[in-house]
Design a protein that fits this description.
The complex is a heterodimer of chains A (440) and B (117).
Chain A: H1 2-29, E1 37-38, E2 42-46, H2 50-62, E3 63-64, E4 67-71, E5 76-78, H3 82-86, E6 97-99, E7 109-111, E8 115-119, E9 124-127, E10 132-134, E11 137-140, E12 145-146, E13 164-165, H4 171-187, E14 189-194, H5 205-220, E15 226-231, H6 241-254, E16 257-259, E17 263-268, E18 273-277, E19 283-287, E20 290-292, E21 297-298, H7 301-304, E22 335-337, H8 350-368, E23 381-388, E24 391-397, H9 418-436
Parallel strand pairs in A: 1-3, 2-4, 2-11, 4-7, 11-22, 13-20, 14-15, 14-20, 15-16
Antiparallel strand pairs in A: 5-6, 8-9, 9-10, 12-21, 17-18, 18-19, 23-24
Helix pairs in contact in A: 2-8, 4-5
Chain B: H1 6-17, H2 19-43, H3 48-72, H4 83-111
Helix pairs in contact in B: 1-2, 2-4, 3-4
The chains are: A alpha/beta (440), B mainly alpha (117).
The complex binds flavin-adenine dinucleotide (FAD).
Flavin-adenine dinucleotide binds at residues 46-52, 71-74, 80-81, 83-84, 114-115, 141-143, 167-168, 201-202, 205, 300, 302, 339-340, 348-351, 353, 382-384 of chain A.
Chain lengths: 440, 117
């Protein structure tokens, strides 16, 4: 009798437990949200890359009735941090490719065209086909342009042949670069790596690729036949002094040679010669069997030809003149720049975008609500600096060249760690995608 | 990392596995855990015989979890670079060990409920 009575009681206990767990799950899934700000504002975002897409999703979440319009002529969205993994033979080219339209909020509209003209006086953007798009707020998020033509003797159809790679050029070029690196680390010879003298996105990427090439040669047992030299554009290997020192030590340890103040000028694929210019303007020729061509980087033409860039600063590069803390234009207060195109020191990484987007979101939403925004951006930039397959350094820094580790005391920034590699390999793309959706 | 909230974490995991697979895995893990509590409540005692087999399975779960993570991430034991890496490795191994023990125990109890009083 007691037994018969007990069993249903325990079953009920079990059901209660299950119900409790379900309730917890529900509570976790629906966090409280602030009320939306009602507005009829026309917000135009140029570029649906990392920054433009993330911002569109966050604004759609915060605003009711806003007209959010994005302009982007490229149908493919590129997850660019993946290019390094593609060029290391670890991922296929498709790893970095998705569709631009798949990430955008339903309430925003996409004009699948590039912006051809920006008129911040009239507050109008003109598309490539001539459509005029007026705005109340303009967010420039066009990323940057790779200036391949600035390199004498180079054209993109050389990539994938005779030892020429170009990791930056896109997913397919990154895959072609891998094929050449794979061949080179089998046969041996001289690898020449470098970076441009302009501002650039992910300044760690050229270094990573030197490390990866060295690692492959070592793994394949061909290191003795492989000579690797990295030509730095300035007197140091990286813009943050403490990181530059660490990289210098690692290069020394791995037997990667270094030259300083050498800026790449020309390539002669026939003779397999790269020409550098030094600080005194003298030219130096060096032969190569494998290289990763990284060209000068500038703001897209539409931005350079507009009144938006800095004058007297970054001449010829054209980055948008914004306040480094608020990312608001210094002369046109309804204009913001976010991502690679913003004229701020540091900050040209996808990780920076994650910190910049909430600032622009806050500034716009607060203004629409009749308040003053409070969020500021302090230059957060991050780069998981791969030092070999399986290890990386999780380097995070700010405007002041200070290291700002996310996990102080746990993940040491200047140590080559497996956990930092795991972050780059598995967590980074997921975090990036969550960021695109406005959720990270 | 900015805004490391529970919601961010869920969003990241959804992206890592794909939304469908992530929730399917979460539900499977939830069902196994519930199954475990169910057999515990139903039998109102831990069967030490079944627990023994569950314990024997633990090293296999630990090793399988570590090898799986290394395989997915193109890395190996030689990449352990600092104390935190050893901790992560141990955490992966522990998760694998506990996971397989719970699974073994639950499956055993569901298949042979009355084998032992
Ligand atoms: C090889 C490589 C490795 C990298 N590694 C890392 C890393 O490890 N970690 C990290 O955080 N970051 C890394 N980055 C940097 C990161 O990818 C960029 O910083 C980030 O994508 C910047 O986002 P964005 O929105 O400013 O530009 P993008 O993502 O480039 O998007 C710009 C968008 O604007 C569009 N556009 C261009 N011109 C116009 C126009 N005229 N009108 C309209 N639209 C236009 C483009 O089509 C594009 O869709 C790496 C980049 C490269 C190339």
């Amino acid at each position: 009798m007691t037994r018969r009575h007990d069993i249903p009681a325990t079953r009920r206990a079990f059901l209660g437990l299950a119900g409790g767990a379900a309730a917890l799950g529900l509570a976790g899934g629906a966090p409280a949200r602030a009320a939306k700000v009602a507005t009829r504002a026309r917000i135009v975002i140029l570029g649906a890359g990392a920054a433009g897409t993330a911002l569109a999703n966050r604004l759609a979440e915060r605003l009711e009735g806003a007209q959010i319009t994005l302009l982007d002529g490229r149908a493919e969205h590129w997850y660019q941090p993946g290019f390094t993994l593609i060029a290391a033979g670890l991922k296929p080219a498709s790893y970095s490719v998705s569709r631009t339209s798949d990430w955008l909020p339903a309430s925003a509209s996409l004009i699948a065209e590039a912006a051809a003209e920006i008129d911040p006086e009239a507050k109008v953007v003109t598309t490539a086909s001539g459509t005029r798009v007026p705005y109340d707020f303009l967010v420039v998020a066009t990323g940057l342009t790779l200036d391949w033509d600035a390199i004498e003797g180079f054209s993109l159809d050389l990539v994938g042949k005779d030892g020429i790679g170009a990791v930056y050029a896109g997913p397919d070029y990154a895959a072609k670069t891998w094929a050449e690196m794979d061949r080179f680390t089998d046969s041996g010879g001289r690898a020449v790596f470098f970076r441009p003298a302009t501002e650039m996105k992910c300044a760690g990427a050229p270094l990573k690729y030197a490390f990866l090439t060295e690692d492959y040669a070592t793994r394949k047992g061909t290191r003795g036949k492989v000579d690797i030299t990295y030509f730095a554009q300035s007197k140091s290997l990286f813009g943050v002094p403490i990181v530059a020192e660490k990289v210098r030590m690692l290069f020394e340890e791995r037997g990667i040679g270094t030259e300083y103040s050498h800026v790449m000028k020309a390539i002669d694929p026939g003779r397999k010669i790269i020409t550098f210019t030094d600080a005194d303007g003298l030219e130096h020729e060096t032969d190569y069997d494998f290289t990763n061509v990284i060209p000068p980087m500038r703001a897209p033409e539409v931005v350079r030809n507009s009144p938006l860039p800095w004058s007297g600063k970054w001449e010829g590069e054209g980055w948008v003149e914004v306040d480094p803390q608020t990312l608001r234009h210094n002369r046109y207060p309804e204009v913001f720049a976010v991502g690679d195109v913003a004229g701020v020191p540091k900050g040209k990484t996808a990780a920076s975008v994650k910190w910049q987007v909430p600032v622009v979101e806050d500034r716009i939403v607060a203004q629409l609500a009749g308040q003053e925004g409070t969020e500021v951006y302090d230059g957060y930039t991050s780069c998981p600096l791969i030092t070999r397959i399986g290890r990386a350094m999780l380097i995070e820094f700010d405007y002041h060249n200070n290291l700002v580790p996310s996990f102080p005391g746990l993940i040491a920034p200047l140590e080559e760690l497996w956990i930092s590699w795991l972050m780059k390999e598995v967590a980074l793309k997921a975090t990036y995608n969550a960021m695109l959706r406005g959720k990270a | 990392m900015k805004e490391l909230t529970f919601e961010t974490l869920i969003a990241v995991f959804e992206e890592m596995f794909g939304r469908g697979l992530f929730w399917a895995l979460a539900i499977v893990a939830g069902i196994i855990t519930l199954g475990y509590f169910y057999v515990l409540v139903r039998d109102r005692a831990v069967s030490w015989r079944k627990f023994l087999l569950a314990q024997i399975s633990m090293p296999f779960g630990a090793i399988a979890a570590v090898l799986f993570v290394q395989w997915v991430t193109n890395s190996g034991f030689r990449d352990i670079g600092g104390p935190v890496d050893a901790i992560v490795l141990l955490m992966v191994a522990t998760a694998g060990a506990i996971g397989i023990a719970v699974l073994t125990y639950t499956v055993e109890s569901l298949i042979w409920p009355k084998k032992e009083a």
